[in-house]
Design a protein that fits this description.
single chain; mainly alpha; 1% strand; globular
């Protein structure tokens, strides 16, 4: 067997053995030849060895191999190797080293945001992140719940690994933390009353701590009132210092999430105010350019006039910006995400921020003006181009000519030729490439 097929066969067999059950009737595959020292091959050999050590219940030994696989993948770089090595490390560590596993899981999802456009292909990393958040009782689990809800729609239908059916339970679990921002009054349900009774052994003490009258608490617990206001639930949460988990009723989870967003918004606006106007603008737009499904996640901000006003206020009038962004929970959460977003969004933000920062102040000012005048569909095309351009701005050891259709835009935007060409060819079909060229033309015209 020649070298390349042998490398593929070796890595496939070793990893297949590690995933197979205990009843597999074959010897454990091994590889000795120096042919396997090719970095790409080595990554998956190391992953296979690590998984076999896990299978042999040698977790501590497996971690070093997962780490070697990650470091080797980074030197190439090999996106699949990077994401899979970190994800596997987090998955196998989560029961014994939960906090470390959580950090590693976030790192895996960050790299997924940096390297991947199709969020359906990295759902396994979101699932690992969810499991780590559950174990660590992370307060931002709602953030991953929002993200997983939209990512779930990109999965294949049907049954089997990587399908919606495969991840249905994970999404159902995460949905318990999915916030509903337009609710302010809740049904006084039996599960809610039972939960509160366990937390309230003494009505008088709770009344003092929460500022709710003993009579009001009593009628809630006895079910004599059919509705309970969100503000009342908030007082109970604060008075009892409730920490939410998977056993917590939705009513308490939802109000706790809204309280968290409000607190983070106020805290981070103070931080945002201390940043220079130009840096605020880059942070604001790089966050916007990185969001997924903006018409659903930030419906008001995705409107052209709203985005333009928010961008202007962000740079020129920070107090007015704070008032403007405090209108909805979605926009308050957006401000929080400027500093601490979902790790997939953080990976994308790093790309968008680099794209904007590489422009001269003069070009960037004209680009932003043109970008804000695009409709949402065209902005999404521009967002992807910005990400792809930075992704492909690495040393390749080869040269690809810039397509004639892109020559003008390389000059207009002061772009490097190689990453601009690769960003063009990243589209699989001519229709996508034509749409990119048209969008770049609109941006060019808007910069005049």
């Amino acid at each position: 067997m020649s070298k390349l097929p042998r490398q593929i066969a070796a890595t496939t067999l070793i990893n297949y053995y590690s995933f197979a059950g205990d009843n597999i009737n074959s010897r454990r595959p091994r590889a000795w030849s120096k042919d396997y020292e090719n970095p790409s091959t080595k990554v998956f050999l190391l992953l296979g060895v690590a998984r076999n050590l896990v299978k042999d219940q040698k977790l501590s030994g497996s971690i070093s191999y997962f780490s070697k696989a990650f470091k080797t993948a980074q030197t190439i770089p090999h996106p699949t190797g990077i994401i899979e090595s970190l994800n596997a490390m987090a998955w196998y560590m989560k029961e014994t080293h939960a906090k470390i596993a959580y950090k590693v899981a976030k790192k895996a999802v960050w790299f997924a945001g940096w390297y991947r456009e199709d969020i359906g292909t990295i759902f396994f990393a979101l699932d690992t992140l969810l499991e780590c958040q559950k174990i660590c009782k992370d307060y931002k689990l709602f953030d991953n719940a929002i993200f997983m809800t939209f990512a779930y729609g990109y999965l294949l239908s049907g049954k089997g690994a990587g399908t919606r059916d495969h991840y249905k339970k994970s999404v159902d679990d995460s949905n318990k933390f999915l916030p509903v921002f337009d609710i302010s009054t809740y049904e006084n349900t039996v599960p809610l009353r039972n939960y509160l009774r366990d937390y309230i052994p003494n009505i008088s003490n709770v009344a003092k701590a929460s500022g709710i009258t003993p009579k009001s608490i009593s009628v809630i617990l006895n079910g004599k009132v059919k509705k309970i206001k969100g503000n009342t639930i908030r007082k109970i949460i604060k008075g009892l210092d409730i920490k939410v988990n998977f056993d917590t009723p939705f009513e308490i989870i939802n109000e706790n999430t809204k309280m968290f967003i409000e607190d983070e918004f106020k805290k981070l606006m103070d931080r945002f105010e201390k940043i220079s106007p130009d840096e605020r603008l880059i942070l604001f737009l790089s966050t916007y350019m990185s969001y997924i499904e903006r018409r659903k996640t930030i419906p008001s901000l995705s409107q052209k006039d709203v985005l333009s006003k928010a961008t202007r206020l962000c740079k020129n009038d920070i107090k007015a910006f704070e008032d403007y962004m405090s209108i909805t929970y979605e926009t308050m959460k957006f401000v929080s995400d400027i500093f601490d977003a979902h790790p997939f969004i953080e990976g994308r933000k790093a790309l968008a921020r680099s794209f904007l920062a590489k422009m001269s102040p003069r070009i960037r000012k004209r680009f932003i003006k043109a970008y804000l005048n695009l409709d949402e569909d065209k902005r999404r095309v521009m967002d992807r181009f910005a990400r792809d351009y930075i992704r492909y701005d690495i040393k390749w050891g080869m040269r690809i000519e810039v397509p004639d259709k892109m020559e003008e835009y390389v000059k207009v935007f002061h772009l490097k030729r190689m990453p601009a060409a690769l960003a063009y060819w990243s589209y699989d079909d001519e229709k996508g490439r034509e749409k990119l060229v048209r969008t770049l033309g609109m941006v060019r015209d808007g910069m005049k």
